[in-house]
């Protein structure tokens, strides 16, 4: 009887030992449980144009757990002012709500496809600004934020005396150049903006890199169509590009044979 009891005890202990052995195997890092809440907005960018910041970001398409995002209501945008020489924006949060965006009733924001653009003004030289864009679903639950920060600098002057002459499928722009540089930074060149009459100027220029000098020739235009142009000066300050305000606006209508 004693022998049978010992054998039964061994049979009960062995599975328990194997279970504990498996549980004590190699453990990986603890992974956070992903939720069906919106992922962060895509490619959040802030650029200075004149005395304002232009914020732009892309529409998130998925939730944090990888499932399709089908119930996005909009965004909440928070702004925080800080001193770059003393403050640590990551260490404390003094953000205030700058704007709420409702996808069903867009106000104060421009949408182009899946990207959104909005302006922020009232900025002070010498200070930095951090922006946090939080997606919100239709239940009011907040998703993962996107964060960007940028220091504000005094902008360069606008180019002077911009003129345009129309030719065959081309427009030639000429302007009075600005000084090459100064204590605020070095002049990188000029950005050329083009629009159709009655439309706002786009946020991105025609040129891929700043134009170094006058004149600039814009090719591939449609004859008989009127185009409007304006320029911004581009200054390089502390490694970042700062655009000035728009110049005067000029118009050109290309014609065959010119």
Which key phrases capture this entry?
1 helix, 9% helix, globular, 4-stranded antiparallel beta sheet, Immunoglobulin-like, 2 domains
What does the model show?
It contains one helix and 16 strands. By secondary structure, the protein is mostly beta strands. It has two domains: 110 residues, Sandwich (Immunoglobulin-like), CATH 2.60.40; 93 residues, Immunoglobulin-like. Strand 5 and strand 6 form a beta hairpin. It starts with a helix and ends in a 6-residue tail after the last strand.
Summarize the entry for a quick read.
The chain is mostly beta strands and 258 residues long. Helices cover 9% and strands 42% of the residues.
Topology, number of strands: 16
- How confident overall, as mean pLDDT? 87
Order of helices and strands: HEEEEEEEEEEEEEEEE
Q: Mind describing the biggest β-sheet?
A: 9 strands, mixed
Uncertain regions spanning at least 5 consecutive residues: none
The CATH architecture category of the largest domain equals: Sandwich
**What is CATH's topology name of the largest domain?**
Immunoglobulin-like
Q: What is the total number of structural domains?
A: 2
Overall helicity: under 10%
- Distance, first to last CA: 115 Å
Helix-strand blueprint:
Layout: H1 2-23, E1 42-49, E2 52-58, E3 72-82, E4 96-102, E5 110-112, E6 115-120, E7 128-137, E8 146-151, E9 160-167, E10 170-176, E11 181-182, E12 185-195, E13 216-219, E14 227-237, E15 240-243, E16 250-252
Parallel strand pairs: 1-15
Antiparallel strand pairs: 1-2, 2-6, 3-4, 3-7, 5-6, 7-8, 9-10, 10-13, 11-12, 12-14, 14-15, 14-16
């Amino acid at each position: 009887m004693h022998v049978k009891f010992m054998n039964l005890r061994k049979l009960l202990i062995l599975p328990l030992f194997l279970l504990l052995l498996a549980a004590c195997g190699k453990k990986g890092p603890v992974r956070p449980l992903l939720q069906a809440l919106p992922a962060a907005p895509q490619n959040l960018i802030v650029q200075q144009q004149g005395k304002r910041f232009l914020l732009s970001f892309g529409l998130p398409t998925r939730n944090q757990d990888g499932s399709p995002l089908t119930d996005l209501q909009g965004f909440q945008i928070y702004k925080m002012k800080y001193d770059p020489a003393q403050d640590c924006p990551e260490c404390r949060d003094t953000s205030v709500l700058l704007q709420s965006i409702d996808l069903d009733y867009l106000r104060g924001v421009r949408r182009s496809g899946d990207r959104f653009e909005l302006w922020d003004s009232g900025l002070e030289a010498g200070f930095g600004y951090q922006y946090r864009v939080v997606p919100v679903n239709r239940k009011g639950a907040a998703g993962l934020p996107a964060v960007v920060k940028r220091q504000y600098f005094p902008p360069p002057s606008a180019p002077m005396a911009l003129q345009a002459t129309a030719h065959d499928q081309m427009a030639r722009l000429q302007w009075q150049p600005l000084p090459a540089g100064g204590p605020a930074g070095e002049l990188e060149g000029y950005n050329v903006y083009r629009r159709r009459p009655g439309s706002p100027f786009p946020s991105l220029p025609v040129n891929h890199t700043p134009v170094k000098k006058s004149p600039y020739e814009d090719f591939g235009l449609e004859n008989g169509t009127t185009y409007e142009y304006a320029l911004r000066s581009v200054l390089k300050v502390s490694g970042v590009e700062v655009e000035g305000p728009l110049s005067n606006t000029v118009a050109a209508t290309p014609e065959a044979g010119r």
